[in-house]
Amino acid sequence: MIRTEGHLKLGMGNIFRSIRVAKKLREKYNANIRFMLEPTSVIGIKKILDAGFKVDLVGFSKTKQYIQHVKKFKPDIIINDVLNLEEDYIKELKKLDLLVVNFEDKEFSVTREYADVVFNSVYADKETKTKYYHGPEYATLNDSFKGVKKKKINKECKNFLLAFGGSDPSGFTIKVARILNKIDNIHVTVFLGLSFGSHQQLYDLLKYLDNDKFTIKYDVEYNPNDFENIDMAVASGGHTCYELASAGIPTILLCQNELEKERGPLIAKHGTVINLGDGNQLNDPKLMNTIKSLMINYGQRKKMSENGQKLIDGYGVDRIVEIIINNLKNRTISV
Fold it and tell me: In this structure, which of 114, 123, 196, 211 has its CB flanked by the most CB atoms within 10 Å?
């Protein structure tokens, strides 16, 4: 059983990660899988149903309801991919005879110690006694990112990508599009998610933009082919950073919220992105200067690309699923 969430305010990263893990469990182990979500995750629920999985709807943050659904389904494994997991909920899970697996995106968590296995693609934790797997090797990319060919970096930087997640709650797509519209002889591909909330503003903006310069793509399931002709990306600090790194795309990072602001410097230390911090506070001249500076710095773009492709190999989901199943087997043996 998988509990997750995904909507306009939060974004869709948890949903995509959960679906990829679920598909791999089904593909490799013929797992019977059911999802639990609250009704606020309308778009996330649609994505899960489209992927061929069953969904239980649960009342808003009702621990008893969650536990009732778990008891009814009787899973061997419960996977929690929720940003702020409730302590009372996971304490109740621990009373049941199942393997508890958590995905985390934060440095600290009050529920970490209650889980049997935890995955965190960003933050280390040397203190926890939980089986804790951290780092970019546990980034959950789709299978198309396995064995991506080495990116050829062009000396002239002409093709840009804007990728601000499934919802772009801060409207960075519009902010950056205005800036790029002022640069001559470039082309910009814009990825918009199903939960993108600023369509009218974008349409209004497009009236004043050079329409030949912009191509908009909706609801893209990222794969290396989408990045093949891209010279540089401007993106937010979610899971997309790892996909861009795997494809060898030099990236300028704009953080949407407090969580991304915390993660930004940790992602930047790998040398795959230039982190500009809180995009909501970023002024246009600084953004323009950073873009132009990276455009003309072929050596820096080449190094960023090489760093990214060394960092991410595309096998994160396989590692995760193997660890989960091995822990289930060991638990069964010990019981």
Answer: 196
